[in-house]
Amino acid sequence: MNINGDPKTAAAGSEKIIRLLASSLLPTRHGEFRIHVYQPVDETVEHVALVKGDVAGKDGVLVRVHSECLTGDVLGSMRCDCGEQLDAAMAKIAEAGEGMILYLRGHEGRGIGLANKIRAYQLQDQGQDTVEANLALGLPVDTRDYEVAARILSHLGVKSIRLMTNNPRKMNKLADYGVVVNERIPVITPHTPHNIGYLRTKQQKLGHMFDFE
Ligand SMILES: Nc1nc2c(ncn2[C@@H]2O[C@H](COP(=O)(O)OP(=O)(O)OP(=O)(O)O)[C@@H](O)[C@H]2O)c(=O)[nH]1
After folding, report:
1. Domains recognised in the chain with CATH numbers
2. Which SUPFAM superfamilies does the protein's record reference (predicted)?
3. 141 has binding-site annotation
């Protein structure tokens, strides 16, 4: 499919409609990607597809669906594994020569937003875990929705994916929106004293698959 940066729309009926707002080449430390910016109609949030190679019409495309994490992805926070996972996923795609990162905005803090995530960190410093802290703030544990990711994959003509994640629920949520997930590829990053508690809680309470041995 020819993506040239002209605004286009994808999906119809009761599905969320997305527009392609802009595209460009993006040289990165993991080589050259193509960046596409998408926006659901009637929403202001902009999402990113970072694509390497020609993925249209392909099966088993290597995909990382990544939730925005300003502290981890941009600031190098070691409280979580987000930044390292993003880097590892880009490296794997670069090595494979084909694949994509779907960078979902509005997912910050598993959907509660940046300020609330930082409030949750304060509670975590007082002994609560990442799940308890959200609940103590009167907020849901995880409100993330993956319809935009499904619509972008469809717009880019991807037929099926190999999903880089430790979160089986993410696979199921994407499948609910019609994404064919052939395989789950773990994205394991080294644990540190700063994030080991967070990773253990993800494993024990949120269903993430890690092997700490
Ligand atoms: N509320 C809250 N959100 C967090 C915390 N640490 C990281 N996050 C957010 O969690 C999101 C990433 O979700 P994770 O549960 O780490 O991972 P995942 O996307 O479900 O699964 P993977 O594909 O394996 O990474 C990002 O939006 C982060 O901002 C935290 O302590 N509290």
Report:
1. 8-107+147-205 (3.40.50.10990), 109-143 (no CATH)
2. RibA-like
3. no
